[in-house]
Specification:
Tetracycline Repressor, domain 2; 0% strand; flat; disordered C terminus
Length: 97
């Protein structure tokens, strides 16, 4: 990508837009009390975006390496400790099996 400026620019723009939208969703969740974090929403957006990019690449290289449903359970587990709704319900998320 470094040797193709037009490709690099297009990918950079697409990634920045995805991060902006994800950050807006996280901001909204914090604002309405669905999510409680003590760091900038952009940090969580960047982390989630990096994880998703890596998973897409990993899947492209080996479609049988993991199952998306199990990845979804792991993400729910990772975010479970920050969900204010779950805290109010008194239920803790369990690690996926």
């Amino acid at each position: 990508m470094q040797t193709y400026p037009a490709v690099r620019a297009a990918v950079t723009e697409a990634v920045a837009e995805r991060q902006r939208v994800l950050c807006e969703w996280i901001d909204e969740a914090v604002r309405i009390g669905e999510l409680s974090i003590d760091f900038p929403p952009n940090a969580l957006a960047a982390l989630l975006l990096a994880i998703s990019n890596a998973l897409v690449l990993h899947y492209a290289l080996d479609p049988h390496a993991f199952r998306w449903g199990k990845i979804s359970k792991a993400v729910h587990w990772m975010l479970g400790g920050h969900s204010t709704e779950r805290r109010l319900e008194g239920s803790a998320m369990k690690a996926p099996h």
